[in-house]
Write a structure and sequence with these properties.
Blueprint (H helix, E strand, L loop, with lengths): L8 E4 L2 E2 L8 E2 L1 E5 L2 E6 L7 E4 L3 E5 L1 E6 L15 H4 L2 H17 L2 E9 L1 H11 L7 E7 L26 H14 L3 E5 L18 H13 L3 E6 L2 H10 L3 E4 L5 H10 L2 E3 L2 H10 L7 H24 L3 E2 L15 H8 L5 H7 L2 H7 L16 E5 L15 E6 L2 E5 L2
Parallel strand pairs: 1-6, 2-7, 8-9, 9-10, 10-11, 11-12, 12-13, 13-14, 14-15
Antiparallel strand pairs: 1-4, 2-3, 4-5, 7-16, 16-17, 17-18
Bound molecules: zinc ion.
Zinc ion (ZN) binds next to loops.
Length: 411
């Protein structure tokens, strides 16, 4: 079945969880071409029907924080210098494979968070369906010399894959280059990081002046800005400059959360990467330095999500899938939002559907099951509201549709 078939396709007998947080209900979802044609009592005359009794129909899930161009092969061979020591042409192939892995796990959209032309290229190929995979929303990354992004490259290595810009004028020019290349948004850092080498998470990244210039330029070119920030100072600087989302937000406190709720700034907490580093970091080649940084941030990170939720901040599902956290485990974030953030399974699903769609700028097209939106949907065996962990079971993800195309069909 492709989107060009004239006959509508109707999924009948399933339970609908529509992504808005509304109670589940029994309904027929009608797919017409690449869009949701109707949510109805019964299939229209002439429709091809698929019986999905005992199954749950969800909007295609969304991971708002991934790094596509990460090693996609056997985990044991992952090397943290892979992005520095491998041709970009080779990395692109892994990025496309990772987008396919996300799709197989029920995620129809991923937002890449440290990209440039390579990720834009993957996005275009997937949008044209010459390859099958999750839709890509691509951030153009900009960082300062010695910043979190720059320190994924060891200081003695001259080739620096991530875009470095210092000073207001250079920052503006970098935003403009990303716009010219077709990036959807801009990603920056306002604090140091965990997996970067030789910095500390409490380092300031960029001045307020540089941050403001980037946000001003990006907004003028209709691009949002996402800021990696672990520290209170980093979060405050990003909010002062008017960014659209805070990534990680490890030390978020009540006062900062109140500001985010007021301004509508989203939080993408990436609990998964943090849990992965704590549980499996050593075997994945994470350095002692990074393990110690992650441990130091632990208490704050778990608390930050609860503080955000209590303040009414919209939280979006984002995992930080990368060489340390392999693609395909995206639904783990929903479990962790429940376990650590006090979310109900329904709230976690909304974080991975409606709220994630709003965060990545696609709320008009996807994230909820409504007529006129793209037919991005997942058919899951069982009831994820009773047990959210079943979303992580690949065998239960029976069908995945992206824009009306049934790209995964396990029967
Ligand atoms: Zn990241």
């Amino acid at each position: 079945m492709s989107a060009s078939d004239a006959r509508p396709l109707a999924l009948t007998g399933g339970t609908l969880v529509d992504g808005t947080g509304a109670p589940p209900r029994r309904a027929t979802v009608v797919i017409a071409g690449d869009l949701i044609g109707a949510i109805a009592e019964a299939p229209p005359a002439g429709a091809t029907t698929i019986d999905v009794r005992g199954r749950t129909i969800l909007p295609g899930l969304i991971d708002a924080h991934v790094h596509l161009c990460s090693y996609a092969g056997d985990a044991a061979r992952a090397d943290r210098l892979w992005s520095v020591t491998t041709f970009e042409e080779e990395q692109v192939l892994h990025g496309a494979a990772n987008a396919r892995t996300a799709l197989l796990a029920g995620f129809t959209t991923v937002r890449d968070m440290a990209g440039a032309r390579a990720e834009v290229a993957i996005k275009h190929a997937l949008d044209a369906f010459v390859l099958e995979g999750a839709r890509v929303v691509s951030a153009g990354f900009i960082g300062m010399t010695g910043g979190h992004g720059d320190l994924f490259t060891p200081p003695a290595v001259e080739r620096r894959p991530s875009v470095v810009a210092d000073g207001v004028d250079a920052c503006r020019a970098a935003v403009r280059r990303h716009a010219r290349d077709g990036a959807d948004l801009i990603k920056i850092c306002t604090s140091g990081g965990v997996l970067s080498m030789g910095d500390r998470s409490e380092w300031r990244n960029y001045t307020l002046e540089e941050t403001r210039a980037i946000v001003d330029e990006a907004h003028a070119l209709a691009m949002r800005v996402a800021a990696h920030a672990h520290t209170r100072a980093g979060i405050a600087q990003a909010l002062d400059a008017g960014v659209d989302s805070i990534e990680h937000g490890s030390q978020l406190d009540e006062a900062l959360a109140a500001r985010m709720a007021e301004s509508g700034t989203r939080l993408v907490a990436t609990l998964s990467i943090h849990e992965q580093i704590r549980l499996h970091g050593r075997e994945r080649g994470v350095s002692a330095e990074s393990l110690a940084k992650a441990e130091a941030l632990h208490e704050g990170r778990v608390r930050a999500v609860r503080v955000a939720k209590a303040a009414g901040v919209r939280v979006a599902c984002g995992t930080d899938s990368s060489s340390v956290l392999p693609f395909g485990l995206h639904a783990w974030e929903l479990e962790l939002l429940c376990r650590d953030g006090g979310f109900t399974p329904m709230e976690a699903i909304v974080a991975a559907t409606r709220d994630a769609a709003e965060t990545v700028g696609l709320a008009e097209r996807t994230g909820t099951l409504e007529p006129g939106k793209w037919a991005d949907l997942v058919v899951v065996d069982g009831d994820p509201l009773a047990d959210v962990t079943l979303l992580r079971d690949r065998e239960r993800i029976r069908m995945v549709f992206r824009e009306g195309r049934r790209l995964v069909d396990r029967g």
